[in-house]
Amino acid sequence: MGHDDGEDLVAASRRRLEAARAAAARLRRRDADARALHRFRVSLRRLSVLLDAFDAELCAPRAALRTMRATLKATGPARDRQVFRRWLDAAPRTRRAVLAAERAPGPWLWPRFDAAAERLAGAL
Question: Which residues of 77-113 are buried (b: 16+ CB within 10 A; e: fewer)?
Fold first, then answer.
């Protein structure tokens, strides 16, 4: 790998890091839209993939990679909640059928996801 290639990797890494920081800032805002968490997770995943793929060239600190993976894991349930709730809201008949089923998710699912979202908000 030539000198210019290494500089390009560093520049790409910096761009990915800045994108993740910007997405995290949007997520922290009180008026964050439903896509803010999705954008944050995507930007973090892109940064993580870049750092993993070019580990030898970039020498990213292991602790940083572990933190990114832990953050992705911690934000997964909150994102799942968003997707699931959108799915239920988009299909009223499906929502009624699911909630009426013997193992209706409503009574136990929403508090669980809400708690995960609160943990995420507290961590950020």
Answer: bbbebbeeeeebeeeeeeeeebeeeeeeeeeebeeeb
